[in-house]
Predict the structure.
Amino acid sequence: SSELTQPPSVSVSPGQTAKITCSGRVLPKQYAYWIQQRPGQAPVVVISKDTERPSGIPERFSGSTSGTIVTLTITGVQTEDEADYYCQSGDTTGVSVVFGGGTTLTVL
Amino acid sequence: QVQLMESGGGVVHPGGSRRLSCVGSGFMFNGYAVHWVRRAPGKGLEWVAVISQDGSHQYYGDPVKGRFTISRDNSKNTLYLQLNGLRSDDTAMYYCARDTGPTGPPWAFDIWGQGTMVTVSS
């Protein structure tokens, strides 16, 4: 079982705000990353180190953290944002990588 | 352009072996740790293994320990994954992904390849 817990699915209409949460007891101690995977495409990192947006990622993507929960927020969702989103961090030993179970974002 | 390109996937019988390759280009390959991550059909991402920049340290996920081996040849800008004792639950798209630094932990990805599919079936 994953040490990071995400909701299986989130649905929003275009232009609305989508929030995807990830909870885990390692999160106060280790950075979280958010990874987007569109159908049939390679994964892409959209948020690094809890809140940093890598070069080339649209400003509508942001990350926040509060205790054992990190949140990916997409403000003004576009149809191209429809994808699976994974949070990623380290395990409790700090040695291995763990992924959350993934959240499918549907843009209605 | 910074790029990773995987190859070597295919159909393998249960108990069989396969070697995957990942070639890096557009960056100093020997400056970064590199990972393998997989995604089984209908499932989420699962971390497989990582190797440090100089190959001196390797770490594995529990499901593959003792069966898979990660290695690299920096003279060829190439990462490998040797898969032995394959099972049906190893069926997945296998991705290589560059780490943000030369070693760890902690680990963090930045660049990902397009993946190569391994199907374990009789």
